[in-house]
Amino acid sequence: ALAGGAVIDRMAEPVKVYPPGGGGDILEVIPLGAGSEVGRSCCLVKYRGKSVLFDCGVHPAYSGLASLPFFDAIDADEIDLALITHFHLDHCAGLPYLLERTNFNPKARIFMTHPTKAIYKALLSDFVRVSSHSTSSEENLYNEQDILKTMERIESLDYHQEMTVNGIRFWAYNAGHVLGAAMFMIEIAGVRVLYTGDFSRQEDRHLKEAEIPPYKPDVLIVESTYGVQVHEPRKIRESRFTQKVAQAVRRGGRVLLPVFALGRAQELLLILDEFWEAHPDLQEVPIYYASMLAKRCMTVYQTYINMMNDNVKKRYDVSNPFAFKYVSNLRGMDQFDDSQPCVIMASPGMLQSGLSRELFERWCTDKRNACIIPGYCVDGTLAKHILTEPTSISRASDGKELPLRCSVDYITFSAHSDFLQTSQFIDQAKPTNIVLVHGESNEMGRLRLALEDRYNKGSEGHKIKIFTPKNTQAVQLEFHGERIGKAIGVLPKRKPENGLEISSVIIRQDFNHTLVKQEDLSTYTNIKISKISQKLVVPIRRSFTTLTGEVVRTFGGVETGVSKESSRPYFTVGRGVSVEPVGDGLSVAIKWLAGYKADMIADSIASICISMNDLVEKDPVTFELDDDYYKRSLEVSRKMLASRFGTVLGVEGDKNKSRLVLDLVEVVVDHHSGEVECEDELIRERVRMALRRIQAAVFPIPDYYCDCCACSTMDNTEPDQKKVKVEEPADKDAKSEGKRPTGPPVDSVDGVKVKQDEEKVQAKTEILDYALGTEASIQGSSEGGLQEAGMKVGELGQGLQAKDEPLLDTLPVKEEPKPVDTPTPVDMDVVKDEPA
Fold it and tell me: Which own/partner pairs from 550-557 qualify as long-range (CB within 8 Å, at least 24 positions apart)?
């Protein structure tokens, strides 16, 4: 593992580079909201182990949990990145719930543009306030504290600012929908996905049109709000709008404009203020903007003038275009004089609740009044219902029917793309795959047919795959992405040919690969190279000259010499694996620099040393282990198993067995035979390897029993040392009754049985006491006791060898020889780690 998450795959080895082959990788697009509907926009993109969430809104036609996206269809803990396109509630109001009330990944990062973040908090605080008044407390999704917590995690970015999070590259383009609205382009392993959110390719009085990305996206996720509909030209709809408003106030009526607090409302205010300026006869009629939220957020519009179009920028040089002359803010209904004609903008825009619903119910019975719907209406809302021209409506408070006599007109100023804008955008973006979202099922279906007819009917031109998924329905696309490596100083100056062999270090960080020479790592990266020197001391029983000859026969040749420091002979094999005698010549030191080849050569030389040692016959000695020792050994084994795998239980009727459950699979362990019973082969192998290690710790093979040095020679036994002979018991069923078996030992060397010393068994008992947590005090004895007092269990096990004997069989022990000044033998048969 390297700084910045980079990993060295291969080092200083030849690497053959060939074209990639095999199957492709699957990219998934999963709409959690806005799939064949308008509202609660939320779309998840998954590719190559990365997950990106676009938008997280609520549905305006529902309340409480029913308004949220389908979060239960995904694992929120897997999300790496969340991108919010703009501040409308149907695109961002579900974010606090996702962050604070689900298992959303705490390491994931959330981004939105600066104006969006500036308005986000005020807009959601107002949403919480309105929701608490119109619904029960049980239906409230979150509170003010949840909003403040999300503000701490949200990060801001500018248009075209490229960012990288966990291998995901992304940047934003202007979407033209509202102030700060963005389209996001993401790139994962070379595959680009463009998510438009709500966008408009038509410039209005204060916003620029949406940008066309200069890079071709592989997947385009685009809104289909208006399907195949085409908007009126801007000047025509502005003229219709102002005439409808003027007619209503001139006949003594009141005009209600239900709008969202921010977005299209600012556009309409600019139009009305300019129209009032041009018509003095209307200047006595007040225009009210009934939103304290809009008043607070107006400073945001004045702050980000630079993100608006040239028309606003030129007017701002003279005066603030948002300092309206004929528009005033309505602080509350108690200050409103409802006795004369007026124009009021009130939220929400779909008449579901709040002030706009209250005013509509008050004015709908008077035919002089007018209601103009200036934006898109979702099915299931009152605004959508009154466009069907009903004769009455139901009052929200008590359900009483109210006659509908006022005029109702629909003049859309919605900054959503229509069919012409969408098709022109696709023409210039040239995507390979299109996923339609944010549109009613019928409108989305019509748009799909129109796009199929436009792009896929003819035989010429590039074909586009078009998808219209429903909520939680995954669209799966296969990509054969190329893995491209950037080579620095490793390729020849001439043009490389296919199949060229190069030697370099491959550095992989996320989905980027870089090839550099090993000596250039410190120049082009922050990676440091370390060399590991290793030394292994192995006892030998033959002369150093004999060892040299064996190595020559194995490897074909060595370099010999005499050490200047020790004046001793040595030989070198391969690249820097040196061997020389140490101490009194009964051991050799193998030294080398860690590496693939050097490690194998060193292991081979160590094996040669061990194989050269003569095996020495030993007298058979056995001793019976008492019942107390056996019980404590079982207790230690079970405790060690429990520390590794969890709860360990006994098996009724068999004291030698234990039972445990690992990964919902039952495992039965026989401590006597060392056998493991389990249906799962991998789990059985894991437990068996762990049991062998426990056996080695509980019954370590002492250093005076090893076969690799002269310390085990029987000729060194002092004459006065006593041997104890224990005969085989008559009771053959001792083992089955849970007692320690006696009789002949189970271990042997070349058929020669080895007996045990009683004092050695006592030392083993004291080791068990130490493992069980008691204080061990192991003293040396003149008749072969341990040489050192207070040694830890792991130290006593130096030179252990995990063998396949039964776990509780008698350990082979011989009487302690005189101390010999030889290095501690090194065991080469090391038990490998069990599978993860």
Answer: 550/608, 550/612, 551/579, 551/605, 551/608, 554/604, 554/608, 555/601, 555/604
Smallest Cα–Cα separation from 586: which of 706, 700, 701, 702? Answer: 706
Q: Given 3-state DSSP classes, what are the helix, strand and coil percentages for the chain, each rounded to the nearest 5?
A: 30, 20, 45
Neighbours of 470 (CB within 10 A): 11
Task: Return the half-sphere exposure (C-beta side, CA atoms, 13 A cut-off) of residue 25.
Answer: 15
Q: H or E element: which one contains 254?
A: strand 254-258
How many Å apart are CA 140 and CA 395, to the nearest integer? Answer: 23
Q: Residue 363 pLDDT more than 90?
A: yes
Three-state SS for 832? coil
Nearest Cα neighbor of 289 from 347, 375, 245, 249 is 347
**Residue spans of beta strands (DSSP E) within 87-141:** 109-113
Q: Which residues contact 776 (CB under 8 A, 6 or more apart)?
A: 766, 767, 769, 770, 790
pLDDT above 70 as % of the chain: 78
> What's the pLDDT at 134?
66
Cβ neighbours for 215, distance < 8 A, ≥ 6 positions apart: 185, 192
Cβ-based neighbours of 301, under 8 Å, separated by 6 or more: 179, 266, 322
Q: How far apart are CA 755 and CA 813, in angstroms?
A: 6
Beta strands 587-593 and 577-582, pairing class: antiparallel
Peptide bond into 348 cis (omega under 30): yes
Cα 96 to chain centroid distance, Å, stands at 20
C-alpha torsion 334→337→341→347, nearest 10: -10
Q: What is the CA radius of gyration of the chain?
A: 41
Mean pLDDT computed over 160-178: 95
> pLDDT band for position 700 (50/70/90)?
low
Tell me the pLDDT band of 339, cut-offs 50, 70 and 90: confident
What is the pLDDT, as a whole number, of residue 460? 65
Contact 91, 65 (CB under 8 A): no
Question: If DSSP codes are grouped into helix, strand and coil, which group holds residue 477?
Answer: strand
Where do the DSSP E strands lie in 266-388? 287-290, 327-329, 342-346, 370-373
Concatenated DSSP letters of 642-677: HHHHS-EEEETTEEEEEEEEETTEEEEEETTT--EE
Instruction: Give the residues across from 506 on adjacent strands.
Output: 515
Q: Which two tokens stand for residue 276?
A: 């009032």
Q: Is 269 in a helix, a strand, or coil?
A: helix
Q: What is the mean pLDDT of the segment spanning 223-242?
A: 92
- The residues annotated with a catalytic role in the active site are 416
Kindly report, residue by residue over 433-451, the tens digit of the pLDDT: 999 999 999 999 999 999 9
CB 188 within 8 A of CB 170: no
Check pLDDT > 70 for residue 747. Answer: no
| pLDDT for residue 476 | 95
